[in-house]
Design a protein that fits this description.
Keywords: ATP-binding, Disulfide bond, Kinase, Nucleotide-binding, Rhamnose metabolism, Transferase. The protein is of the alpha/beta class. The chain is built from 19 helices and 21 strands. The strands form six sheets. A seven-stranded mixed sheet has the order 17-18-16-15-19-20-21, with helices on both faces. Helix 13 (320-329) packs across helix 15 (369-395).
């Protein structure tokens, strides 16, 4: 029973998941789950990368005690964040979090050196507060000792892979989130790197997803009980892994990775870096098998998660099924918010912010928990529709189906609302799209699968999928007109 291990690190928690090939299907088993809390210190906001590595080793130890035939290990994480290492491979300080305030004021200084439209033509990425380029530029402006003494930059999954295998490499999908890579060549954009005064020496070799780095270090073998299991540079960006794990086929291109962040996009072969794509704030990141993920980030379930957290602080600890039921019972289309308004980006009193937004925009102000949730759910679905319409214009194509994967598809109310608002069929599954994508890239790398298409067929035959058909098109079209007015 060949077994592959997916180390999946999110911005709030991490997991080690085993994927075993059984009778022509993938069987998943969660081995170890752990928190990934950030820490605010006098020098900024940081990740506890050493604690994460200890938890990963514990997950590997538990896996070694349960499975006899572990074939490979792959890591995927959120994008952009990174560590800096010296010439001896030693980490120069804890990695900063992408929400670290050092980004403030940096985009304006960057754009004075290279205007954002030119930056977009080179990288296909719009400037966002979380981009690696912004944070490295901040390090440069702060005369950071870490940057001055750095010999190599490794993104978080690259760093974990290095500590596991002893081999340094930068995997292409994670590098493509940085705003420092040319999506057409898949290599560093030296014009951008030089324009921002970043040291060329830290930008090492880029490898394709599915590159076998090498076996586990001897120290890791002793700590975990595993043998010389190879570490694979899988689809190291979690969204790249999720898209690989969504079983699109034929002419299907439209996908949605639904979680704390919603990311909607097209799987294409060439980047789209037109003026219209820049105006729409769409980004080009790289995927598996030479693909490009042309995408748009949307707030996602963050809105609902933060509502739940606030109500728990107030003494009402509601499960997600209860939240869905409350939203279903509320009156539809009373008010809307822009999910991507900056006012909703930080933790805090999300129900209060939703009410304030509705008040500021002269709408009905939701009062009950169900009304607040209904506003958030319908607004997310309508934002998906707005993004879909922009994809239609930019690509010149129509899309009969949306493939949705990730934990967010378990919110049936939101998934149905997505089908209704977009007016197209939504095929939802798998929930574990990220781990599935990570696993099939490992299987291809080790010769257990021939290619991505075969991996997607394997996923399609291994899990249950739910189809949502659009309904109430007239009501949603009216709501769309009002929603566009709110955005304007």
């Amino acid at each position: 029973m060949p077994t592959f291990l997916s180390i999946d690190l999110g911005a709030g928690s991490g997991r080690v998941i085993a994927g075993s090939l059984v009778s022509g299907k993938i069987g998943l088993q969660e081995i170890h789950r752990f928190d990934n809390p950030g820490t605010d210190l006098p020098g900024g906001s940081f990740w506890d990368i050493l604690g994460l590595f200890r938890e990963i080793q514990e997950g590997l130890r538990l896996a070694a005690s349960r499975f006899d035939d572990i074939v490979a290990i792959g890591i995927d994480t959120w994008g952009c964040d990174h560590g800096l290492l010296d010439a001896h491979g030693r980490l120069l300080g804890l990695p900063h979090q992408y929400r670290d305030p050092r980004h403030e004021g940096m985009p304006e200084k960057m754009h004075a050196l290279m205007p954002e439209p030119e930056l977009y033509r080179h990288t296909g990425i719009t400037t966002n507060f979380y981009n690696s380029a912004v944070h490295l530029f901040a390090e440069k402006q702060l005369d950071s000792p870490a940057l001055k003494n750095a010999d190599r930059l490794l993104f978080i999954p690259d760093l974990i892979a290095y500590w596991l295998s002893g081999k340094m490499a930068v995997e292409r999908t994670i590098a493509s989130t940085s705003q420092l890579l040319d999506p057409a060549t898949g290599e560093w954009s030296w014009k951008v790197i030089d324009a921002f005064g970043l040291p060329r020496r830290i930008f090492g070799k880029i490898v394709a997803p599915g590159t076998v780095l090498g076996p586990l270090r001897e120290e890791v073998r002793r700590a975990t009980g595993l043998g010389g299991v190879p570490v694979v540079a899988s689809a190291s960006h979690d969204t790249a892994a999720a898209v690989a794990g969504i079983p699109m086929e034929g002419g299907d291109q439209l996908w949605l990775s639904s979680g704390t962040w919603s990311i909607m996009g097209l799987e294409t072969r060439q980047p789209i870096r037109s003026d219209a794509a820049f105006a729409a704030r769409c980004c080009n990141e790289l995927g598996v098998d030479g693909s490009v993920r042309f995408l748009k980030n949307i707030a996602g379930l963050w809105l609902i998660q933060e509502c739940r957290r606030q109500w728990a602080l107030e003494g009402a600890d509601l499960g997600y099924a209860e939240l869905v039921a409350l939203a279903d019972a509320a009156e539809p289309f009373r008010a809307f918010i822009d999910p991507d308004d900056p006012v909703f980006s930080a933790p805090g009193d999300m129900p209060g912010r939703i009410r304030d937004f509705c008040r500021r925009t002269s709408q009905c102000v939701p009062q009950s928990k169900g009304e607040v949730l209904r506003v958030a759910t319908e607004s997310l679905a309508l934002k998906y529709r707005v993004v879909l319409d922009s994809f239609r214009q930019l690509s010149g194509k129509d899309f009969p189906r949306l493939h949705a994967g990730g934990g967010g598809i378990q919110n049936a109310a939101l998934t149905q609302a997505t089908a209704d608002a977009c007016g197209i069929e939504v095929l939802a599954g798998p929930v574990e799209a990220t781990s599935c994508g990570n696993l099939i890239v490992q299987m291809i790398a080790t010769g257990h699968l021939p290619d991505l298409a075969a991996g997607r067929r394997l996923i399609r035959g291994s899990f249950d999928f739910q189809t949502y058909q659009p309904r109430q098109s007239g009501d949603w079209e009216k709501a769309l007109g009002r929603f566009r007015g709110i955005l304007a």
